[in-house]
Amino acid sequence: MTIDFQLPNINVTSLKEAPIHLFKQIQPHGVLLVLEEPELKILQISNNTWNIFGIKPENLLQTKLEELLDPFQVETIKAALFEGNLEYINPTKIWVRKKGDDYAVFDAVFHRNSEGILILELEPAFSRENIPFLSFYHLAKASINQLEKTSNIREFCQIIVQEVRKVTGFDRVMLYKFDDDGHGSVIAEEKLESMEPYLGLHYPESDIPKPARKLFASNSIRLIPDSYAEPVQIVPAINPVSDRPVDLTNSILRSAAYCHMEYLHNMGVGASLTISLIKDQKLWGLIACHHQEPKYVSYELRKACEFLGRVIFAEISAREETEDYDYRMSLTHIQSLLVEYMSQEENFIDGLVKHQPNLLNLTSAQGAAVCFGEHCTVIGETPKEEDLNFLVQWLKNNVEEEVFYTDSLPQIYPDAERFKNVASGLLAIPISRRNYVLWFRPEVIQTVNWGGDPNNAFEVTQSDGNVRLCPRKSFELWKETVRLTSLPWRSVEVKAALELRKAIVNIVLRQADELAQLAHDLERSNAELKKFAYVASHDLQEPLNQVANYVQLLEMRYHEELDEDAKEFISYAVQGVSLMQTLIDDVLVYSKVDTQAIAFQLTEVETALERALSNLRQRILETGATITHDPLPTVMAGSTQLMQLFQNLIANAIKFRSDQPPQIHIGAERLEDEWLFSVRDNGIGIDPQFSDRIFVIFQRLHTRDEYPGTGMGLAICKKIIECHRGRIWVESQLGEGATFYFTIPVGGRERERRNGRKTQNHLFGRGQ
Q1: Across the strands, what pairs with 745?
Q2: Which residues share a beta bridge with 308?
Q3: Bridge-partner residues for 46, per DSSP?
């Protein structure tokens, strides 16, 4: 019966990734021996020696290789093994003693597995002579001569399959290339005219699962001469020395998985030959040869095909590199210009987006964004800023690599489906843990031709308690319309993005050093200014006090002799001194704000408000002001500064009152990471054009005759809030009262300091 492979009680992954290199069977056309060195004692042997040698396997186990070979051959083999390079002796023609006095010629291939165990594989030899080197040379030269006539890589691949089919005589030869997602496609094919074409068809990843690919990468040539032949067991199944099944990764006789054999049968294949194509130490593709009937290919001819494939594929790799060269040089030039622009701008982001060429040109993208801090700078067609913020958060939580790219973002990040028209493809590089440069490509709807339905690439069957994978039976053309996918990112574009990342990180580090030095200089300058303001203010108090005292003494002593003008002049002098003293007091308060901010602690806002109201009690009584407030929280703040803040804001509300008694309300609202406070009044209001000016030191909107004061109150409020890492602003209209808002972060300045340390620790931590 057939079982749905989605059932939770069946682990499909374990079935697909079964350790096929540990199979205890080989194909029946050859013999496998596992030997113990240095005596070459036979520890394991395939259970087909009677059919091939006329000797039962149990009569060979635990004997030495001399039981099969003459002493001269054994000594020659031992000498070659002692040299250590098995490639020099593979393949070796050996004469095996059969039952009686008869001998048979075999191609012998030696190899050691991952455990260092020596394995000898024997295949019947069609001739007693090796193919001479000149045959390899002429074979390769004829093919390369054809390659020189074309510069098209697809035509190159077609030449490969033509030459391999000409040499081997297989009914069909295909060149199969793997995609980045694990699927593959047939990019070249040579076949009998009567056979159904597979050229251009895609095949799902499950057709060649990971264990098979690993073996193809390790063992570059693989022959199955008869897909219907019954495999033979290795006896004993467990190696008596290692006490586990022998590793057959490099075996040329290893039996294929039952699922693969059934796959070949469903395709009508009686024999197959597969040659691996390796590029940059990865499996780039395969040359797959199929024959409708069983077909044996000698070891020499297989190696000739492997040699041919490697030589021609090396030429293809070189042509691929050449095709990319011009584009790579163009991207390198763009990258150097971007680095130059960034170095010239005060803000490196401007260097990436304000000039030509810009970020878009580096990857041929239709949109790009630099998300740095709390803001995203965009160019071209991009998602909305809110979507960008969520995307960056997703990248931060899910991506650890130095570069991330996909041509189908909605498949792994479902929220991207709503902006598929601009960002079905994403290339992203992290500048730090929270800052990214992003490139976007729009959706491109495509039609993909599959060799059979990829959604039903296999099924799981269960029979007599055994569960196994079975391949699909149909390879007919199956068309799929692919959506939510962009044009793929080329490797040269990904590499260009990585190089840009290095440049940006270097520039950010340099600017961070410069900012740190500037901050140090500013801190020193500010400290000197504060000291000057503090000392100057104290030194000014004494002469002012003397002026005030002597002027008042002059008025008292000569009161009778002064006329009205003199008395008025003395009054002006006393008022000026009083104003000057008030101004000095305010300057002292302003200069000490950030020095007092060091000792932040948990502070009940209501307590700070009550202290402020107590200080303003007389003014409140005189004006009949009504003051109300919401329930107020506890925050991390300086209690004295918080009291000063409320005192200044409420005093302003009382001072700039309308004809009605002042009505003042203090509100508090919890936001995500901060508290939002408000002080709302029913006073004369403020013209919105002056909403920023009123927080500047010594700035006044009214004359002192209208409203007395120094113009320092709101500047002090602003400085207090900045010390708490918050914000302050006003919303008002003339004649409609004013509402002053300010925020205090949850945790206050101490939280910001901790976050600052984390940012410093993580800014260049990942991917460096």
Answers
A1: 674
A2: none
A3: 234
Query: The tokens of 481 are what?
Result: 């319309």
In 3D space, the residue among 395, 404, 465, 461 whose CA is nearest the CA of residue 434 turns out to be 395
Size of the chain, expressed as the number of residues it contains? 768
Tell me which residue of 56, 35, 53, 31 sits closest to 44, measured CA to CA.
35
| Token output for 726 | 């918050």
- Is 432 in a helix, a strand, or coil? coil
C-beta separation of 259 from 468 below 8 A: yes
Q: Residue 511 and residue 492: Cα distance in Å, rounded?
A: 29
**Whose CA is closest to 43, among 117, 144, 141?**
117
**Which residue do the tokens 């006003």 mark?**
730
E-strand spans in 558-713? 601-604, 626-629, 634-637, 663-670, 674-680
Count of Cβ atoms closer than 10 Å to residue 646 Cβ:
25
CB 450 within 8 A of CB 480: yes
State pLDDT tens for residues 266-293.
Answer: 889 999 999 888 877 788 888 999 999 9
What stretches of 63-197 adopt beta strand conformation (E)? 92-97, 103-112, 118-124, 172-178, 184-191
| Strand ranges (E), 391-493 | 404-406, 425-430, 436-441, 446-451, 458-463, 466-471, 477-482
- From CA 136, how far away is CA 366, in angstroms rounded? 50
Q: Tokens 């406070």 belong to which residue?
A: 677
| Identity of the highest mean pLDDT range in 338-347, 421-430, 695-704 | 421-430
Residues 6+ apart with CB under 8 A from 543: none
pLDDT in tens, 634-656: 998 878 788 888 988 998 888 88
Phi/psi of residue 404, nearest 5 degrees: -130, 130
- H or E stretch covering 271: strand 271-279
pLDDT digits (tens, 9 = 90+) for 191-215: 999 998 898 888 887 777 777 777 7
Smallest CA-to-CA distance from 295 within 168, 127, 109 is with 168
Cα–Cα distance between 43 and 33 in angstroms, integer?
8
Decide the pairing of beta strands 367-372 and 404-406: unpaired
Indicate the angle between helix axes 133-147 and 299-344, nearest 10 degrees.
40
Residue 44 phi, psi (nearest 5): -140, 155
Half-sphere exposure of 477 (CA within 13 A, CB side): 10
The kind and range of the H/E element at 375 are strand 375-380
pLDDT digits (tens, 9 = 90+) for 358-404: 999 999 899 999 998 778 999 999 999 889 999 999 998 888 888 99
User: Strand 271-279 and strand 404-406: pairing?
Assistant: unpaired
Rounded distance, CA 393 to CA 354, Å?
26
CA gap 124, 119 in Å, rounded: 17
Distance CA 527, CA 530 (A): 5
**Contact predicate 248/21, CB 8 Å:** yes
* Residue of 345, 388, 338 lying closest to 367 (CA atoms): 388
Strands (E), 442-528: 446-451, 458-463, 466-471, 477-482
- Helix (H) and strand (E) counts for the chain? 20, 30
φ, ψ of residue 372 to 5 degrees: the values are: -130, 125
The angle subtended at Cα 638 by Cα 632 and Cα 643, nearest 5°, is 60
Mean pLDDT of the chain: 79
Bridge-partner residues for 691, per DSSP?
Answer: none
Q: How confident is the model at residue 583 (pLDDT cuts 50, 70, 90)?
A: low
Count Cβ atoms below 10 Å from residue 395 Cβ, excluding itself: 19
Other CB atoms within a 10 A radius of the CB of residue 675 amount to 21
